[in-house]
Each structure stands twice: as C-alpha cells, then as structure tokens.
Amino acid sequence: MGVEEESCQTRLVLGLGSIRGESKKSPPLTLSLFGETIDDLCGGQDSAASSLSNASVKRERDEEVDDTEDHRVSSDDDGSNGRKKLRLNKAQSALLEESFKHHSTLNPKQKQELARKLKLRPRQVEVWFQNRRARTKLKQTELDCELLKRCCESLTDENRRLHKELHDLKALKLAPPLYMHLPPAATLAICPTCERIGGTTASSEKAAKTSFAKPHFYNPFTNPSAAC
DNA sequence: AACCTCGTCCTACTTACGTCA
DNA sequence: GCTGACGTAAGTAGGACGAGG
C-alpha cells in the first residue's frame, strides 16, 4: 500500500469519548485529514485553514515535508473509519532512544534530521519525544512516590518507637522502688533531644556530651534511621 | 512603550490501536 | 476465538513565549 493511496483518502475519525461526551476538551466530532493539507484539499489558502487550531495547521505543514514512506495502514480497506496505529520498528526505536539520551527535546533541525534518518514525518518524531518525556516524568513520579512512601513508613516506625519509649520512661518514673536498682544518677546520661537514658560507658557519655554541645537534627530523607 | 495577533512549542489529558496473557 | 490489561502513537486544549505589525 503506497503513500499515494493513503494520502488521497480523507478519513473521518470519530472519537468515541467525544461522542460519549467524556472529554470536556474534545469537540463532538473530529475531522482528521491524513496526508493532505487543508489547503491541498480546498485548493487554496485562507479558506478552511483559518478555522483550524495552530497545532493542526502545523501538523499538516509537517506532513508535507515527509510522506516518502508509508508507516500507516489505511483502515478504509475494511470500510471502518478508525485510525490505524503506527508501530515503530526496533531500529527506529533504538535511534530515537539514543537521541533522547543526548537531548530530551529537539530543535527543528534535529527533528528534521532525525525524521529523515528514520523515514518518518517530523511530526511523528515530535510526538515520540513528547510521549517519551511524559513516560520519563511518570516513571520519575512513581519513583518519588515510592521513596516518600518508604520515608513515611520509616517515620511512622520511629514515631511508634518513641511513643513506646516515652511510655516506658513515664512508667519508670512512677515506680520508686525501681530506683534502687538503677545506677547512681551521676552515671546516667540522658539525650537532651530524644530524652532517652543512655548507658554508663565512656562512649555513651561522650555521645551525651556531644548531644549537648551540638543538637542533632533528624533528616529522614538523608538518614531515615538516624535518630540516636 | 504597550498592545495585539500569529506561529511555534510545550504539557496534560485523552483516545484508540496493537499486543499479549 | 474472546477478553481485559497494558503500552504507546496520535489528537486536542490551552498556556508560554518570541516576532512582527
């Protein structure tokens, strides 16, 4: 099936969502002209083109640039009006990915060059980059979400632990006989920040002194379990 | 200088096709 | 063969921005 065959066909694409009124942005019906510009079809400028959106006009202009290879399949063979979908081959995907690694956006020259190499229309290259950026962003959002979830879980655990510790300390305070079993007060070190009782070793004393000298700030993002 | 229009590019959202389990 | 989920190409609306009048 050649480009000429396809480009001569005017295809009416009916968006189901639009028909159902699901999309607030979409018009009820969309007339899609594949391979032909409005000007081509109307035989001149300033007729119907002026009523089209900028994007549509631009798209049609792009399509004029490269229609040398048919990556589309006409759906009119079977009499349906649905659009057929381009599938990029592995080589095309690989080159696009490689290009995306170097720059996630394209200038017009790069777009043209890439389209020429891939034997695609510049508009298709542009769309691929738009969708690729969207996928990258979505993936990053998912990763961020996962990280926040883990931080939240960590903070919840820490909070639970601190509550329990506070409860234990209060219980300890209300139980005088237990004082008898504790070491002399002078040997106890209490963390001024978390109010935990430290041990009597040199290291814990040192830690306590350090805590006095320099209050520690807990950053769950850099050190989720850094508290004491 | 301030404004308006136009063209272009982008994002966000959506639709619809192809594939696969 | 049918079906639902998923990935993705493509359509659309609207905003931002620069150029030119």
Automatic annotation (TrEMBL):
Gene3D superfamilies per record: Homeodomain-like (1.10.10.60)
Entries under CDD domains matching the protein: homeodomain (cd00086)
Cellular localization per UniProt: Nucleus
Region ranges (Disordered): 45-85
Key word Cell inner membrane present: no
Coiled coil segments of this chain: 138-172
Superkingdom of source: Eukaryota
One function term, GO molecular function aspect: sequence-specific DNA binding
Segments forming domain Homeobox: 79-139
Main location: nucleus
Short name of one Pfam family: Homeodomain
Keywords: Coiled coil, DNA-binding, Homeobox, Nucleus, Transcription, Transcription regulation
Skewed-composition ranges (Polar residues): 47-56
DNA-binding region: 81-140
Keyword DNA-binding: yes
Family: Belongs to the HD-ZIP homeobox family. Class II subfamily.
Name of the protein described by the UniProt record: Homeobox domain-containing protein
Organism: Salvia splendens (Scarlet sage)
